[in-house]
């Protein structure tokens, strides 16, 4: 089990250090600043998140973006499934279309090896996802990261708002 975690950590480091596809390996990839913009209302945000690949987004109310384990990860895996980086790229591009909105990110994992292992797995996934989305240019939009053990979506993004009059996390 320890070897598996070491191998997964090495792979995460390798993926996080690799330049994004389509960029020259010699150039440093620097995240562009997100332009200042006002947050959009929940209805506009929900319409903008429709048809996000592999995601579950409710059609009404606050547009919480959820990904289930089979859509992104094999059970117990730290790295996304083969071909699912395109899903994460689509997520980053969609988030960048709404630069005024910020998102709270929760990464979950379950493990037959127990809650402690599941928590470490969730943290490893969160660290990798954070680096990947930062390199994709969406890092400034993600204001909080939480890793937790337990059932539920493996990746969940909830819109937040800086306005004090909105307790739901998004401008109404």
How would you describe this structure to a colleague?
- The chain is an alpha+beta fold and 172 residues long.
- It has one domain: 60s Ribosomal Protein L30, Chain: A (2-Layer Sandwich).
- 35% of the residues lie in helices and 15% in strands.
- The protein has 5 helices and 4 strands; from the N terminus they run ααβααβαββ.
- It has helices at 2-17, 42-48, 69-72, 85-96, 115-135; strands at 65-67, 102-109, 142-149, 155-160.
- A 4-stranded mixed sheet has the order 1-4-2-3.
- Strand 2 (102-109), helix 5 (115-135) and strand 3 (142-149) form a beta-alpha-beta unit.
- Helix 1 (2-17) runs parallel beside helix 5 (115-135).
- 26% of the residues are buried.
Write out key terms for the chains shown.
172 residues; alpha+beta; 60s Ribosomal Protein L30, Chain: A; four-stranded mixed beta sheet; disordered C terminus
Helix/strand class:
alpha+beta
Question: What is the average of the pLDDT values?
Answer: 80
How would you spell out the order of helices and strands? Answer: HHEHHEHEE
Q: CATH superfamily assignment?
A: OmpA-like domain
Determine the oligomeric state from the structure.
single chain
Strand arrangement within the widest β-sheet reads 1-4-2-3
Inertia-based shape: globular
Number of separate structural domains = 1
What is the number of helices?
Answer: 5
Topology-level CATH name: 60s Ribosomal Protein L30, Chain: A
Q: What is Rg?
A: 16 Å
Named at the architecture level, the CATH assignment is 2-Layer Sandwich
Terminal CA distance: 47 Å
Beta-strand segment tally: 4
Identify low-pLDDT runs: 23-31, 163-172
Helix content: 25-40%
């Amino acid at each position: 089990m320890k070897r598996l975690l070491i191998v997964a950590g090495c792979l995460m480091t390798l993926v996080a250090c690799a330049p994004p596809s389509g960029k020259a390996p010699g150039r440093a990839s620097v995240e562009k600043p997100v332009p200042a913009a006002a947050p959009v209302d929940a209805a506009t945000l929900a319409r903008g998140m429709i048809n996000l690949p592999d995601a579950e987004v409710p059609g009404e109310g606050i547009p919480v973006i959820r990904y289930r384990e089979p859509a992104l990860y094999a059970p117990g895996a730290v790295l996304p499934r083969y071909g699912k980086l395109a899903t994460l790229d689509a997520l980053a591009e969609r988030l960048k279309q709404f630069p005024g909105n910020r998102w709270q990110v929760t990464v979950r994992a379950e493990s037959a090896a127990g809650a402690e292992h599941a928590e470490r797995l969730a943290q490893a996934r969160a660290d990798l996802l954070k680096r990947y989305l930062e390199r994709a240019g969406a890092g400034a939009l993600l204001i909080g990261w939480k890793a937790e053990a337990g059932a539920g979506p493996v990746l969940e993004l909830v819109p937040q708002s800086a306005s004090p009059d909105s307790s739901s996390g998004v401008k109404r």
